[in-house]
Specification:
Layout lengths: L1 E5 L2 E4 L4 E8 L4 E10 L6 E6 L5 E3 L7 E6 L4 E6 L8 E10 L5 E5 L3 E6 L1
Parallel strand pairs: 2-11
Antiparallel strand pairs: 1-3, 3-8, 4-5, 4-9, 5-6, 7-8, 9-10, 9-11
């Protein structure tokens, strides 16, 4: 199972970005799909997560601004980020847990995509 992210970039404060994360390979189903971020000199932190059933959870710092969604037909998870702030700058990582046809659970990290917000 491979995970590829896209959608990062440089935007001004107040702007928006949409990140995508597509999983490929021998996948029976995708369980929890999440986005993490890591700012320079900081630990990686959970930004948003969505269960297979659609339950979502967000970091307090992004509530009301970020929205996680998923398209199970495309094995893809998205992160819509609005009203971006310089404090949102960092490398954003997708994390998924896939299940293959042997009922094995396969956690995977994406390679990361840089998000930079200018003031």
């Amino acid at each position: 199972v491979q995970v590829v992210e896209s959608g990062g970039g440089l935007v001004q404060a107040g702007g928006s970005l949409r990140l995508s994360c597509a999983a490929s390979g021998t996948i029976f189903s995708l369980n929890t799909m999440s986005w993490y971020r890591q700012a320079p000199g900081e630990q990686r932190e959970l930004v948003a997560t969505m269960t297979e059933g659609g339950t979502t959870r967000y970091a307090d710092s992004v509530k009301g601004r970020f929205t996680i969604s998923r398209d199970n037909t495309k094995n893809t998870v998205y992160l819509q980020m609005n009203d971006l702030d310089p404090d949102d700058t960092g490398v954003y990582y997708c994390y998924i847990v896939a299940e293959d046809y042997t009922q094995s659970y396969l956690p995977r990290w994406g390679q990361g995509t840089q998000v930079t917000i200018s003031s």
